[in-house]
Amino acid sequence: MEYGYVRVSTVSQNIDRQMDEMYKLGLNSKQIYVDKQSGKDFNREKYQKLKRKLKKNDLLIVKSIDRLGRDYKMIIEEWHHITKVIEADILVIDMPLLDTRNDASNLVGKFISDIVLQILSFVAETERENIRQRQAEGIRLAKERGVHMGRPKYVLPDNFNEVAASYLRREIKCSDAVKLLNMARGTFLKYAHMK
Asked: Please, what sign has the CA dihedral across residues 127, 129, 132, 136?
């Protein structure tokens, strides 16, 4: 049996392109499982349902490897489970080398797919590490130049100090203070108690 898996990260994203690819390969809507949530892990309802259905010699089709998930270490674990434990095949449409059916009679297809997946994993992990390093470097350089990072500083109203002092001396209630300052209660209390 052949199954397709389609994933987008949010409900608002469009699945048409992935669905078209599945239909071109002859799958119907009952064979396609769709998740509209992040690929940060594999705790996705439809994916788990599909995985429970997979049996030996079935074929799982995905448009691209990142549709399966974002974390390559987890993808490799899933790949291993599907191909070695369940003994189903996987086809990644955008990367024909990731097709465990290729010459499967002498295991060359599975071997090549496993190697390609390991290389992709290494490249993705290296790129993630490079991005983190560039971000940290950028933040460090920005701080050295005096660039403020994060939220902009909250600008207190001109009369804040006198109203806060009246509140702290219990001359006015908190509700009156926030009305006078046109501030949220939590924000007022946070800054009033810093004085």
From this structure: negative
Judge whether 166 counts as a catalytic residue.
Answer: no
Helix axes 160-168, 185-192, angle to 10 degrees: 80
d(CA 186, CA 167): 14
Mean pLDDT by 10 residues, the chain (195 residues): 94 92 95 92 93 96 87 84 92 87 62 77 77 88 84 87 94 95 93 83
| Catalytic one of 9, 38, 64, 166 | 9
Q: Vertex 161, ends 158 and 167: CA angle to 5°?
A: 125
Tally Cβ neighbours within 10 Å of residue 139: 12
